Amino acid sequence: MKKFKTTTPFLFLFLAVLVGFGSFGFGANKAHAQIGQVPFGGWITKIEPCIISNNVMIRHAPAAGPGVVMYDPKISHLYAYAQLMPGNWMLGNTLGVEPCLQLAPFPPFVVLRGFFPLITIVGTSGTGMTAGSGSNTSGSNTDNADNPDNAGGSSRGDVDGVVPAIYEPVEPCGEGDNTASSYVIANEGWRNSPYTDSLGHRTVGVGHRITGDEPFNVNQTLTNQQVATLFEQDYNRAKEEAAMAAALHGVDFDSLSDTRQAVLTDMAFNMGAQGGGGLAGFNNMWGEIAQGDWDGAAGEIQNSTYARQLPGRSELNAEAMRTNDRTVLDRHINSDPQAWQFCQPVSEPPIIA
Known about the structure:
The chain is an alpha+beta fold and 353 residues long. The chain is built from 11 helices and 9 strands. The protein has 2 domains: 117 residues, CATH 2.40.50; 196 residues, Lysozyme (Orthogonal Bundle). α3 packs parallel to α5. It is globular and about 65 Å long.
């Protein structure tokens, strides 16, 4: 059970003053009238991006007001500390409602989650963490450390050198590829607009390097569906390459647990599988895996150039390899709204506010 510090009432007092001042400016500069606005506040428990309607559904344990609210970046004003993520407190006003529309794998390929109160203004506490957990997981990730979208976009991965915060509750993603693909998204980030990575490569989507063979130009902004389709192809290729690398070292990839397959697939997605610098080049790690020495395999991940370049991501992978604990993956997925959206079952019944 999460315990809250005695400073919580003072935090709410601070946020109340902050939102009060922000509301004055918002009412003076926006078409929305202050009359009819409904205050709300509570502890954020879950965030779900609504890809089709391009807004975000936020569930929270309400101290006041509705328990489910909608954040629309085109309308909603976000004030300090600008940390809309599970584990944080928020306080603000709503006016009217907005729908949450998400992708579905069956016609008409859209599912309506419901209509929920629309946030006009909201302030948050700082980073939400349980006692003893690591720092906030906002910022850039992977080898694209200069990706500006990861610093303030819709998807947030790990900051290298920092183990992501442990959020409660940890909600499991689906099995197998559902978890592994979502875990890769949490590590890589999600970018609809092309950018140039630290090595000078034009990149888009979930760490996809543009080759010129794609059905779009190097400066085209992609829809979420296009990013998802591109990522599915890249993910399947990475998993196949991870299995091939395993076979080269006498390891039956399919005999490994889903958690350890996810680790190896994530490594292949990030660095490739072939060549001395790829996953196949981790000869000592593969030897330990073949012997079932999981501590040794984790140690080989940590004692590598890969770990020195990406300490945060590699530490997560080493921990999952050592413990075979899938909650290591789930916690990271839970901390990333886009990754969590990707793993959510679309058959989940509508939420009743």
